[in-house]
Amino acid sequence: MFYNSFELPTGPDNNDSIEKLNSGEFVHLFELPFLKNLLLELTSENNDRVVKDKLTSYLNFHVKPEDKNNSNEVLAAGLAPLILFIQQNWTGPEVNLSKELVEFNAFSKTMNILQDLICDGENVLPVVQLPELLYISEKILEATFYTFKDSQNAKIWYMRCLFLHQQVLEELSPILFDKIMAVINEIRLTLDSISKADAIALHLEFGRIYMYYGNIQKLKEDVNHATNLCGLKLSLSGALGKRTKFQLENIAQLILKVNIDGEEILKDEKKESICKLPTDLKLDDDVRLDKIKFADSLSDSFPDLSGLQQAVILANLFLIEKSQPKDSLRDEELYPLLQCILDQPKVWSIKTTTLLLRSKLEANHKRTVERSMMQLQVRSAHHSSVVVLVDSIKDPKLSLSERSVLFFASHLPPIWQLRSVLADSLISMGSIKSALELYLNLECWEKVILCYNLLQMRHKAQEIIEQELNKDPSPKLWCLLGDAKDDVSCYQKAWELSNNRSARAQRHWALFYYSRQNYAESIKHFQMSLEINSLQKEMWYRLGYAALMEEKWDVSATAYRRYVVLDPECFEAWNNLGRCYCELKQKERAWRALQEALKVDYSNWKVWDNYMVVSSDLKMFDDVIKSYHQILNIKGKHVDLPVLNTLVLGVKMYESQEKDQDSSNFKNKFRSKVLELFGRLTSQVINDSELWFLYSEVVDNDTPENLMKKQQLLIKAHRSAMNKTGWEKNLNNCNRIIYILSKLMEVGLLIRKPDVLMSCKLAATGTLTKIKREYPDVDISKNLEKNMVEVENILNESINFDKKLNRRKNEIFEFEFWGREFEDCKLQDLLCIQEGFCLFVMC
User: Fold this and answer.
1) Per-domain residue ranges of the chain
2) For residue 333, what are the contacts with CB-CB under 8 A and spacing of at least 6?
């Protein structure tokens, strides 16, 4: 049903309107009494307000909930103009209007009824053809939606009509967004009652709508749901192959692996293979191959996929495109999915969209830009005003029913966007004037200004816009004139012309100040623009940044929160949101925001650093250690002394707690993790005194081995401090070194080995000599007095021990000397007494 997008379900009570609709006789549906009488009623009036009232009255009279037998005819009457509108603006070929349509078209241009298509101050694009068909269709489908509340078809077609309405507006409309979301929520309640193929197609449609509004998270959910229902397993892998004609050795290339699980999804209710699909032009390059030539021919083979399964792969392709940064790595991931669809084309709309996307990707590469342009070429036959992707878009031999298969799930853009892509390709090739001509025909004034700037004819852009303003002044044109002239007064005129309802006017106004780093002035205009239209995703981001630069943390946090709802895959927004929460003293919220940033970009050391600092403030020591190791993995060297000091304090904090078996195990495990981190750091950074000192603070005093290790670490801390040029010129440095020495002496006295104490003494003596030489005046050195007294006391104790040691050595020497004179004497006794020295008693 929804797989063949322009059909309604058949049944025993079908009337002639359903048969005409399903057979593709859309123009003949205007002969239906309901639609024919409606058009006659409307064209008989000459006042637009009366016309709108008559339309409402007619629908209220003829569309009644108790008349369910009439529901299909009313629904078909609503679909007929909508499908012809799609044909004229999306699929082609050009519509041959019936007499009634010609009269209604001429009538609608004299009346002001199309003003009803304006939403939130956003006008219909000037390039849209036959917008009156959309107008009459939306009114009928709206009536069927609210009248026949149990009709699933009415809900789905009303959703589609609203989304088409959104696509022909200049900007996103919050009013339409709210309506579409409400209808989608109602449709979701009935998904279990339809076939699996229809459920998949609807999930793809939902995803397409979410993508249009920039909600990547919702897009991901629906695409994943459709992929699972379809039984597809998609994964990127590698295989050896050659990309160029002169390549001698095979190198690793990215490939797509496709596996199908579960029952087979139906291929199509009708005929999936179409006789004339768009032509896939071959790459005619001197160096690059048209396709990668794999060493194993099976590497680029895929299972036979239905059109619906190809639509699911296409949706996954768009998910990758929208959720990842725009770079060469993303493009490399897209090509295997593109090739999978192009290798076995089945559905016109799917292949057309795939070729268009490939053309957009190839427009930026010198070896493929020519094919990109050739795939989007101008044809003069039959429909000279339309720029086509390939001949099939305007080919009258290809029926609309063939083009309609999976149309709503295919992401097929309107015809004017195809022309815009061609103009973009021409710019890539340097054909600025050709691109300018296309943009002028499309009335794409932003791109017109760009082209004139590239041609160094900015004054010409101003002239063109002023000419258009004389024809039909609009807020958009005034804004563009302001951009061309750098004149704020133009934005003021646009704002006044819109009766203070133009989000665009305030946006251009804000961007004028933002680009000049006048963030304070830009903030109020961003806020006014977003108050009118909250769907401007990029404006939320810029408001957040402007407020952040002005240190308006609450405004910035609100803006970034709104932005990450629309785009949760932006790590910069999450990171900046964390910064705002930190400034607002909301550390736990900052911690959670930074966690989201790391989910998006796991390899950014700056985000890890922020996460580490916040975790340190919250005493989440395991996260601190994990973050520090990750930073070292990415960056190599990184010393953050405040964070390391927090870890040392954490070790001491656990030591001071009551001891039991579980807590002792935890303390030992935590200490081991901290020691491991310090060991890794000091293997990379060997000349940081504070790093060595903090390392020594983590080492316990419980064993002789640990005391010796601690002493060695303190010696390295002292040596690193002494190696710093000019350390003695700074009192703070002197105080710090004396403190390190005092710790060194304390450890030495605990060890009580002569060689250890001697090394401590030598270190202290040399250091104090330098300090006294620099600060001989007592007043100057008074700041050091406390630490120096402590060191002197330790030194005196060490010297006394030294004298005692020397006296014992002399006694041993005298004994050995006289022992040689009395070699024949017998030793009657040998006593080992105090402090390890031997005294012999002779007879």
Assistant:
1) 16-162, 816-842
2) 236, 254, 320, 324
